[in-house]
Amino acid sequence: SRGQGRRRGAGDQERTPTNQPAAASGSDDREWHEINWQPKNINFTANPGPVKDAAALDSDKPADYVQLFISDELIQDIVDQTNLYANQYIQNEKGNSPHSRIHAWKPVTVSEMKNFLGLFFLTGIIRKHDIEMYWSTEEMLATPYFNKVMSRNRFEIIWRFLHFSDNKARPANDTDRLYKVLPVLDYLVSKFREMYQPSTNICIDEGMLLWRGHLAFRSYILCDSDTWYCYNMKPYCGEGAALEDTVIHLLDRLAGRGYRLFMDNFHNSVALSKHLLDLKIHVCGTLRKNKGEPPRIMRHNDSVMVLAWRDKKIVKMITTFHENNMEDIQVWQRGHKGKVRVQKPACIVEYNKAMNGVDKLDQNIVYYPFVRKSHKWTKKFVTYLFQISLFNAFVIYKAKNPQGKSPYNTDPGRRLDRNIANHALVPILPTPKKQHPTRRCRVCSRKGLRRETSYCCAGCGVPLYFGECYTLYHSKAHYQA
After folding, report:
1. What is the DSSP string of 89-126?
2. Residue 225: how many CB atoms within 10 A of its CB?
3. How far is it, in rounded angstroms, from Cα 258 to Cα 285?
4. What pLDDT sits at residue 100?
5. Cβ(343)–Cβ(327) under 8 Å?
6. E strands, 294-397, where?
7. Per the database record, which ranges form the PiggyBac transposable element-derived protein domain (predicted)?
8. In Å, how far from its chain's centre is CA 115?
9. Neighbouring C-beta atoms of residue 250, cutoff 10 Å
């Protein structure tokens, strides 16, 4: 399971490895040099943007771009597996189940499944505490649209039997932990790779699937660092799999194109960087100790440069395409009213800009949390795949319609007054704006505390907590903590 706020800058070297292969052995210091570092030049040869069916699609309707991923073919497969599972369950529980409603089950159709998914996605926009509240008839809580589309009982029984693979068809010797979600996972991830070509900078990081229980795998995602498009995903179960194989699998057809890959210290090593360079993939990222680095830093071995730099702590970096130079940047520092000019190695500056693709993806989809409570991780995981699919559709929609806007951006109160089977699959999700923007309290910042407030002084425009902080700030002519 994942918690929130896991963004790691280049100063964080404390990530704990899980199911990690043995660390690389130490390097022969004679292979490493201190001067005459010149990174290899690899030209970028890809054409970023929508490809194949996504490139051929000429439409300004967001639903058409959603259906590039959540297609009739996929929905038909889910319908078939849901009906099969419901029939198997009812046969097994016949005469034993206390829920008479289960025996009133009737097979779901593709059209009805679209209605179900449309309402399901809509709960991420219209937020209520419990699923039952969407069908409430109380005047203050009512959302009549839901009752017009589907009854609450029908929605709940479809959710109960929602299924993605045939349990009885599973071979006795099959140990794949992802068997129950594999059809949906393989279908959607193949569509992710098929519909879009990432730009030059790409990154690999762990996706954030919120789950209170124990998951036997981690989901690693390869994203476009500029658009945050999810190009590929690979659940990593640890057993019988090396991280190097996971990285190579995620790159897929991007190898040989001159991409620049950013990864954290969980993945990086000198050996992997040299191997990827042979595949015409540049690498940059943080580096953990005992990953083949030389005993003294900075050094290079004609293919890879490794350096150490002290910020709040020592940061180790590895790169195959940066020169050994510093860049001027503006940063916030405690005790200063404005940003301060500092110097950082060029590889760290670019790493901090390009490594946040997966974090930005997770940040955008969490704004529309149509993930419902469930005791089954399979439903949570497939819902997460649907969220990524909707965001990917949004990226392609914006690429094809740069002047267009999402319906929910132009008119948040708009009713979906068209055929639910087509138009309810339209949650092309822009990042919502805060209703009451906040800024860091000036007094708390001087004390080293990160607290935000929506209040500011009408006279000086300084953000301050109302009360003690306001009084303390105005008690001195020139405030100092």
Report:
1. HHHHHTTT-S-GGGGG-----HHHHHHHHHHHHHTTTS
2. 23
3. 17
4. 55
5. yes
6. 299-300, 305-310, 314-319, 326-332, 339-345
7. 62-394
8. 26
9. 22
pTM of the predicted structure, to 2 decimals: 0.80
pLDDT(162) > 50: yes
Gap between the Cα atoms of 432 and 113, Å rounded: 28
Number of other residues whose CB lies within 10 A of the CB of residue 293: 24
pLDDT of 442 higher than 60: yes
- For the cut 80, the answer to whether the pLDDT of residue 459 exceeds it is no
Who's near 268: CB < 8 A, 6+ residues apart?
283, 285, 286, 287, 288, 291, 318
Distance CA 193, CA 186 (A): 11
Q: 309 is written with which tokens?
A: 């730099």
Alpha helices in 94-235, H assignment, sequence order: 110-122, 144-149, 152-161, 182-195
Chain-centroid distance of CA 169 in Å reads 32
All domains in the chain, ordered by first residue? 29-47+199-357 (3.30.420), 52-175+368-423 (no CATH), 439-473 (no CATH)
How much is the pLDDT for 412?
29
HSE at residue 427, side-chain half, CA atoms within 13 A, is 25
pLDDT tens digit string along 354-403? Answer: 998 999 998 888 777 775 666 788 898 999 999 899 899 989 988 998 87
Give the span between the Cα atoms of 377 and 215, in whole angstroms: 8
What whole-number distance in Å separates Cα of residue 303 and Cα of residue 295? 17
Residues 81, 111: Cα–Cα separation, whole Å: 15
Using CA atoms of 345, 346, 348, 354 in order, give the dihedral in degrees to the nearest 10. Answer: 170
- Rounded CA-CA distance 458/345 in Å is 41
- Read off the pLDDT of residues 392-439 as tens digits, 9 standing for 90 and up: 998 998 899 887 654 434 332 233 223 323 344 444 444 455 556 778
